[in-house]
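WARN  no MSA supplied for this record, continuing single-sequence
INFO  ligand: guanosine-5'-monophosphate
INFO  echoing inputs
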Amino acid sequence: MTNPKKNSIHADITARLQAASQPLLLSHIRPDGDALASLVGMGLALQAAGKSCQLVLSDGVPSKFRFLSWSEQIRTQIQPGYDLIVALDCSDRQRLGSSFSDLPIDINIDHHITNEHFAALNLVLPQSAATAAILAQFLPLWGFPLDAQSSNALLMGILTDTIGFRTSNVSAHTLRQAARLLENGAHLSDLYERALVNQSFASCRLWGLALNRLQKKGCLAWTSITLQDRKQAGYSGRDDADLTNVLSAIENIDISLLFNEQKDRTIKVSWRSGAEMDVSKISQRFGGGGHPPAAGAEISGSLEEVEEMVLKATSEYVQEKKAQGENEHGK
Ligand code: 5GP
Ligand code: MN
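INFO  complex generated
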């Protein structure tokens, strides 16, 4: 395990955090559980050390995560008066949201392999299961102990990013960190129920409409969420209502994709894959990013255009990858 005292990035982060009195914490647009949990978990730990924190998400808190205590502290606008800016779980500046993408970021803490190291200090650990896991490990070592509330928030981040500890990056280390958070007073079964299992009636209706158009060709499976579906289902969010998690459960496919139509003639694409494929590579071709088994991009165009272009590139990638595998076996 890293010894933060010997490692200059940790010494630098500790010094900056200790010196700040009004830190501003930011994370990515269309926030997921890890983005939100990292903000709340770190915010609570800094607040307990006497700092006055601002927590800002340009898209606000998705309704399904509003049960998390202290999430009501999160604002969508920045107030003047901060003396340190920390970006959490965010792989590039644009993902902070268009109004925040030019801010001078002091500290960038993330686990995306595609992170662009855009801050003065960058702690990017792609082997970590979640940004919340990085914070669970290092906040106490930087001098910010975790109490029951911050531990609960951080456990939610680990739980949601690993879809209930089932992604391939979950290790014994991840489970030990989760165990430590439980010892601190986090509530695993409650979080599991509220953050992963529970779905609103509108989400389930949205799944139904989208799954009705589920398609499969070769080892790819995909569907879309249209603006019309959202209206018909009464679903107000612009996220995927966790449908990508459902698609990732389909057997005997290499990659599942979701095309999520947005208002401004852009399509949010999500890829999910098993251990053989690295979908972050495909997403980067379209200006996106993510992890080898889970990645996304926002692409301009109509649903039909984007579907055609992305399915072609994805199936070419699968063919190349399989041909490479066969060559290596043949050697
Ligand atoms: P999702 O498909 O659930 O939106 O995202 C899957 C993963 O890819 C997450 O780790 C997310 O942060 C990342 N991701 C999703 N969309 C984008 C994007 O447009 N740009 C970048 N850089 N990363 C993305
Ligand atoms: Mn994450």
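Residues 91-92, 95, 112, 114, 244, 270, 288-291, 294-298 surround guanosine-5'-monophosphate (ligand 1) (CB under 6 Å).
INFO  checksum written, moving to next record
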